[in-house]
Design goal:
mainly alpha; 0% strand; elongated
Length: 599
């Protein structure tokens, strides 16, 4: 048995077009009336509004709404109303039931009524027919809008602000900060005449709106929210109007009902839309111009903008007052803080001055009191006594000022001499303690020095240290760690190495200073004939100095010539750069002489 054949079927034809226009293209007034939810079905059905049919036997035969007796409803009537009106007018204009005087007219009109019903009951045909109805597509012109303009003398009162705001010193600057293009382009008009003029045009154009129940313009008492919604809805205005009847394009218009399939029908609709595009654009521009003309003149918008400006200025004024208050509080706080700091500073200065005066007095006493004691001891009575000059120095340098004052404050010279002997004993003890403390201090310094240097350095360690210092000059990364590694991590610490290098450099400087001094003395004394007796002669080098020179030359062989001999002089204790160079040249000359003798 052969399997059933499956065929894809596309929806086309008059029924599909009706469905398409009802669901997508046409406005909400032409939506299907039988779409109800289960909840809506439970409710009682609303009683349909009675359609009033007025038969006009003298109407134009091309006026379908007049033929159906619904001229008063025109394009606002829905499909159900058209059906009910058709039933009524069919009975009234039936040739057998029409009045006798209109029997002849009834026969001709009865056929036209059928045609009118067929046209208006088809949403797409109705849309085309409604678009062809004569319509005045004008908008308010310049003369009309000039007639409702407000006189200049009345305009000045509109821009006035509260006196509190206008008296602000920053009022003009704040007004410039309020940036609103809508405020700058405002045109002031007479309010009542404005509503009369523009309400007519908005009402006229609203017939073509896709949105049902487009809001009216309102009046002076309308809320701000209502006014905003009104202009917002008109700025989004979408028209259902068709321009397929225009002379320029009607010969090129395609009928979607003649399409063979859905794809061709969509293409026809798209082509028709492209033909209508210039007319749609012209219509949109006209509505946009009308809306903007109304917006820049609407007194309600003007009041809203003035209110916004006033709120903006008031907000700035409030911020300014708050800022000034805060600034005054800050200034007061700073003033109190400054006064407090000045008071503290004056008290501190007074206390420091007092301390300085006491210290100055003490310094003066340190000089004056010993001077007075020396003057006292110059007296003949004291010179003839057992007092020695060194005893006077001992008291002056070691006794306290208070103790010296006790000597001077004695009433008689005998008592002064007795007191002098008592204070001398105390001063000698103080002097002895000072010497002991100084000796202890030196001992501690020596111990610290020895602790830093560690155990004594032998000649091999010194040679390795001098060599390592030359190989790793100042500026080398991790210099002391590398020198420690060369000397031996287990034998010497970094602190010991640094201390020893500093000790060697210090000894080298002292030796160089002593040599320079001896050299200056030798220049003043008669020169000796024997060069070998001269300590500065290249041959007069110790074994340690020669070893240090050799290690230094090996360590600095990679350095530039300008820096080489400076580093060598630092590594050789007791020798200058010049002496190191002369020693090198002397050794080289000795070696060359030996080679000559061997040849």
């Amino acid at each position: 048995m052969q399997a059933p054949l499956q065929i894809d079927v596309e929806s086309v034809g008059r029924s599909f077009l009706i469905h398409y226009l009802k669901s997508i293209v046409y406005n909400a007034s032409h939506q299907q009336t039988n779409k109800t939810t289960k909840k809506a079905k439970k409710k009682k059905k609303k009683k349909k509004k009675e359609i009033e049919v007025i038969v006009d036997w003298d109407c134009d035969l091309d006026d379908y709404y007049a033929l159906l007796g619904i001229k008063q409803y025109e394009m606002n009537i829905n499909q159900d109303g058209i059906k009910r009106a058709y039933r009524k007018v069919s009975l009234l204009m039936h040739p057998d039931k029409a009045p006798v005087e209109h029997r002849k007219q009834a026969e001709a009109r009865y056929k036209l009524i059928q045609k009118a019903f067929d046209t208006l009951s088809d949403p797409y045909e109705k849309q085309k027919y409604d678009s062809q109805i004569e319509f005045d597509d004008s908008i308010p012109d310049v003369i009309q809008m000039a007639n409702i303009a407000l006189p200049n003398k009345d305009i000045q009162d509109l821009d006035k602000m509260a006196s509190e705001l206008e008296n602000d010193s920053d009022y003009e600057e704040n007004c410039k900060l309020f940036q609103s293009s809508a405020m700058e382009n405002r045109l002031h008009v007479k309010e009542d005449e404005f509503y009369k003029l523009f309400e007519t045009y908005f009402k006229k154009w609203s017939r073509y709106s896709n949105k049902k129940g487009l809001s009216t313009m309102g009046n002076a008492k309308s809320s701000d929210e209502f006014v905003k919604r009104f202009y917002e809805s008109w700025r989004k205005f979408k028209s259902w109007r068709l321009f397929l009847h225009e002379e320029e394009i009607k010969d090129n218009v395609m009928d979607p009902n003649t399409a063979e399939n859905n794809k061709e029908k969509k293409w026809m609709i798209k082509e028709n839309q492209m033909l209508q595009a210039p007319f749609k654009k012209e219509e949109s521009m006209a509505i946009e111009q009308m809306v903007e003309s109304a917006y820049i003149r609407d007194p309600r918008i003007t009041r809203m903008l003035i209110k916004e400006k006033e709120e903006f200025l008031r907000d700035l004024l409030t911020k300014k007052k708050r800022k000034l208050k805060k600034q005054r509080q800050q200034e007061e706080k700073e003033r109190l803080y400054k006064e407090k700091q000045d008071k503290i500073r004056r008290e501190k200065e007074a206390e420091e001055k007092k301390k300085r005066d006491i210290m100055a007095k003490m310094r003066a006493e340190k000089t004056e009191i010993p001077s007075k004691l020396r003057s006292l001891c110059n007296d003949e009575y004291f010179r003839n006594s057992h007092i020695k000059p060194k005893n006077i120095d001992t008291i002056c340098f070691n006794a306290s000022i208070e103790d010296i004052k006790t000597i001077l404050n004695q009433e008689t010279k005998e008592l002064q001499l007795k007191k002098f002997d008592d204070i001398l004993v105390i001063a000698k003890k103080v002097k002895k303690e000072k010497k002991k403390a100084e000796k202890e201090r030196k001992r501690k310094e020596e111990l610290e020095k020895q602790e830093k240097l560690g155990k004594p350095w032998n000649d091999d360690e010194l040679n390795i240290l001098i060599n390592a210092v030359g190989r790793f000059p100042g500026g080398t990364m991790n210099r002391w760690e590398k020198i420690q590694k060369a000397v031996g991590k287990d034998t010497r610490t970094v602190d010991e190495i640094i201390a020893k290098v500093k000790d060697l450099q210090k000894s080298n400087r002292k030796a160089n200073k002593k040599k320079n001094k001896n050299k200056s003395n030798s220049n003043n004394s008669p020169q000796k004939n024997n060069d070998n007796d001269d300590p500065n002669h290249p041959s007069n080098w110790s074994k340690e100095q020669q070893s240090a020179l050799e290690n230094a030359l090996r360590a600095v062989r990679t350095l530039p010539a300008q820096e080489k001999w400076d580093k060598v002089a630092e590594m050789v204790v007791g020798k200058t750069k010049k002496q190191c160079v002369e020693r090198f040249k002397w050794i080289r000359a000795q070696l060359q002489a030996q080679r000559q003798q061997q040849k």
